[in-house]
Every structure is written in structure tokens, then in C-alpha cells.
């Protein structure tokens, strides 16, 4: 009831219940007015942009053939996935290269002239195979840098040049490493260059006259040591093998089976002493098993088994006989 004793809200019909609902009265009216005003407010710029993009997306006409192109793309992707998963990438790439080279050959870029220089130890076929040159290559798509790197990957090839002379000439020049020595390690003999590069397994009898170095690490240290021994040709001519001991010092295994033990340092003076002893006393030709030159102030000689036995017998013969009898 109001201040005059009257009922503020009629109690008949729908108004009776609306009086008890939340949001009734003036506050409720203001809230309803705010909702109406908010609904009538214009949309924001972002909302208008999204609405326009949506209309364009659903109203746009797709170009003709888009479905076919999409299907072809799916098939191509499936084929590519199968090629990669199946490990067939290399054959597919080679086939595509063959098709490309065939088209270039038809266009007049076939390799019809091939000049090869500098090969002595490698055959012509080995050089061409190393460079990747086949009868299907075209000069237009032949990669000279790749061919040069392939050639240099061969241990016999120190350097290489590859030139294309259009429309159909290819020129290849190589500089080969020279065989320097035979290297024996772990029961295997290999041909090495002077820098220690292993060129090939020893199979050619024409290389049998190369010096033989033995032992781990001997390949990279042979050049300096053999150049030092070369100063004494009378000693080097009698050496069968140069043996590196413990990657520290060298022994000379002579052709008569004699071992010459050289010091770790001072190899030159030791070889000089050996040359003098052999020239003056024919030391190497004697019946001895080893000569030890590791000490700078002395030379130690070990007799062979036969020489030691002969020396022992000779000493026994020189020994005076024991006196017979004695004091009674």
C-alpha cells in the first residue's frame, strides 16, 4: 500500500503476478530499454568484415575443372608418398633425368666428342665411370662440378678439370697420384702415395719394386724416413722392408734376414755408422742376426743361432784340457 492507504499494484489478472517477478518496477523498465537499445546499435567493423567474407565465401562460383585438378593433386600426392615410403626416389629421379637428357639429345646437345688426358694408372673406362659419363648424357644438363667432385673422390685422382664445349664436346683432364710404396698392415698390402693416401690393394706385379713399409702409422711417416735412407744407397739397396715399431722408431729388415734396429732420434748418424761398418768390416755380410744402433756410443751385434753354436764350439776347443791326476 502507498502512503494514502491504496494498493500500489493492481491485484487482478496478469499484473498481480508481474508485481512479484524480478526486474519489475522502474529498474526493470530501464534494463529492458537498455537491451532494446543495444539490439538496435549498429555492428562493429570487425563484425561487418566477417559477415561480408562469409557471404562472399558461400556466394562465390568455383572455377570450372577445380574438382578434377583437386583429384589429380590428391593422386599425385599419394603417388609421391608411395615413392618416398617405398624407397624408389633414386630410380624415379634417374628416370626423369633420362627423359630430360633424351629430349636435349634430340635437340642437338648429345655428347659426340670426348677428350680424356692425364690417365696412366686408371683406364679410360674407370675415369668415365668415376665422372658419371654414360652414353645417355646430354651436354646441356651435364654438371661439370659434380663430375669433378666425383673424380676427386677416387684416391688415384689428385685433381681434375671438366670442360663443356658446345654443342657436343666434353673435355676431362686428371692429375694422378703416383704410387710411392707398398704398405703392409694387419696382413693386407696396399699401394700408397707419398702423402699416405691408400690408392688400391696391391694386385699389380709391376708395382713389386716399390719399397715395402710395415706397421701401423707407417704410411704417413714413410716419406720422410725413406728420403733419409736414400742418402745411403748402399744400405737402401739391401733393405727388404722398413718396419715401424710402436709408431715410434724404425727397423730395417735386410734381404739376408738381418734386423737393424735404429734409434728413435738421431737416425742419420746411426745410418752413417752402419754404412761405415759395412764398408770397412763387411758387417752386414757376416753371419749375424741383428745389429742394434739404438745407443749412440756403441754398436751391439747378436749372432745367428748357427754362428753362436760355432762360436761356442770354437771356445770349447780353445779351452785347455784339465790336468790328469792330482796330489796323492
Features:
328 residues; Ubiquitin-like (UB roll); Rossmann fold; 9-stranded mixed β-sheet; 11 helices; 12 strands; 20% strand
Low-pLDDT residue spans:
none
Q: Which fold name corresponds to the CATH topology of the domain at 181-315?
A: Rossmann fold
Overall body shape: elongated
Main sheet characteristics: 9 strands, mixed
CATH class group of the domain at 181-315: Alpha Beta
CATH architecture designation of the domain at 181-315: 3-Layer(aba) Sandwich
* Gyration radius, rounded: 49 Å
> What share of the residues does DSSP label as strand, in percent?
15-25%
Structure classification? alpha/beta
Q: How much is the average pLDDT?
A: 79
Q: Report how far the terminal alpha carbons are from each other.
A: 173 Å
Q: What is the strand tally?
A: 12
Secondary-structure element order, N to C: HHHHHEHHEEEEEEHHEEEHEEH
Count of discrete alpha- or pi-helical segments spanning 4 or more residues: 11
Helicity range:
40-55%
What topology, given as strand order, has the largest sheet?
6-5-4-7-8-9-10-11-12
Q: How does this model look, in words?
A:
The chain has 328 residues and is an alpha/beta fold. It is 43% helix and 20% strand. Among the domains are: 89-176, Ubiquitin-like (UB roll); 181-315, Rossmann fold, CATH 3.40.50. The strands form two sheets. It has a nine-stranded mixed sheet. The protein has a three-stranded mixed sheet with strand order 1-3-2, with helices on one face. The radius of gyration is 49 Å and the shape is elongated. The model has no long low-confidence stretch (mean pLDDT 79).
